[in-house]
Amino acid sequence: MAVASQYSDPIRIAVIGGTGLGSLAGFTHVATIDVKTPWGSPSAPINVLHHPSPTTGKATPIAFLSRHGTHHQIAPHEVPNRANIAALRSLGVRTIIAFSAVGSLQEEIKPRDFVVPDQIIDRTKGVRPFTFFEGGMVGHVGFGDPFDEEVAKVVRKCGQSLEGDGVRLHERGVVVCMEGPQFSTRAESNLYRSWGGSVINMSALPEAKLAKEAEVAYQMICMSTDYDCWHQDGNDVTVEMVMGNMKANAENAKRFVAAVLDELSKEEYAELVLAKHLEGQMKFAGAVTAPAGRGEEAKRKLQWLYPGYFE
Ligand SMILES: CSC[C@H]1O[C@H](OP(=O)(O)O)[C@H](O)[C@@H]1O
Ligand SMILES: Nc1ncnc2[nH]cnc12
């Protein structure tokens, strides 16, 4: 059946799928939207899925975006993060559940375990565009807590309910986000361990920074696929290892994400998914530049992203 190319109601919840999670089964696909933003096109067209709320039965729309593109043709340093986050915000999204395949930096986080991280260490190299505020519009947003603690509580509760049923959960953790696309050296891997890193990936940043600027509550769910290259077992990470573990545990990953969507679709979270606690923060954090000094092009782009903020 052909699906629509537009969706008129605001969509509040999105899933960004990562390596091995290119789609979500068990939902009704109602639209595929090609969004164009002032920062270009997102990684892929955005699929709108309908999910019946477990309490009211009413369909909750979910936006699904594949981070690396429909065919996993976009490398981590090429992901159009600004377009991705801007496109989702423009559809009304205020809560993002982002999925990521990660290497484990700690013995107790075994391959196929899940981690709900609460911190990030930035090891990207400044080659990825990482802010909406530039070119004559200066803005500074707080990033002490890169993830949304209220959304994280819901995610942890869902993970706990699946524990013992194939899911092993680590309720907190520090993600080291490296540049890639090459994996780390052994010296780097050991350094990150000494810094207290729990897991490592190539995609938490600038995704989380841009979500924060876009006033979107953002939480990542990580699935461990390997022990990177620090472990004594000598099995250094390979793409086959990552893909093999993702594939073997895909059902659990999908069940986990579906459980989170079930929960967030409940009436009691209607306020939370609107991220009211973040609404309006950029009006002030992004108003450092006096009107006389504002770049026209930058202002035009930000007016698209935050209608009414910078008139
Ligand atoms: C294919 S291994 C490295 C690749 O896997 C992770 O992707 P994602 O975070 O999108 O699940 C990691 O960040 C790297 O991009
Ligand atoms: N070891 C690793 N390093 C970086 N990103 C990863 N994604 C999955 N495993 C990884």
From TrEMBL:
Q: Any idea which positions bind substrate?
A: 202, 226-228
Which ranges carry the Nucleoside phosphorylase domain? 12-261
Classification via CDD domains: MTAP_SsMTAPII_like_MTIP
Q: Site (Important for substrate specificity): give the residues.
A: 184, 239
Q: What is its main location?
A: cytoplasm
Q: Describe which pathway this protein belongs to, using the record's wording.
A: Amino-acid biosynthesis; L-methionine biosynthesis via salvage pathway; S-methyl-5-thio-alpha-D-ribose 1-phosphate from S-methyl-5'-thioadenosine (phosphorylase route): step 1/1
What's its catalytic activity?
A: S-methyl-5'-thioadenosine + phosphate = 5-(methylsulfanyl)-alpha-D-ribose 1-phosphate + adenine
Check the record and name the PROSITE patterns matching this protein.
PNP_MTAP_2
**What positions does the entry give for phosphate binding?**
19, 67-68, 100-101, 203
The alphabetized UniProt keywords are: Cytoplasm, Glycosyltransferase, Nucleus, Purine salvage, Transferase
Superkingdom of the source species: Eukaryota
Gene3D superfamilies in alphabetical order:
Nucleoside phosphorylase domain
Quaternary structure and interacting proteins, as annotated: Homotrimer.
Q: What does this protein do?
A: Catalyzes the reversible phosphorylation of S-methyl-5'-thioadenosine (MTA) to adenine and 5-methylthioribose-1-phosphate. Involved in the breakdown of MTA, a major by-product of polyamine biosynthesis. Responsible for the first step in the methionine salvage pathway after MTA has been generated from S-adenosylmethionine. Has broad substrate specificity with 6-aminopurine nucleosides as preferred substrates.
What's the protein here called?
S-methyl-5'-thioadenosine phosphorylase
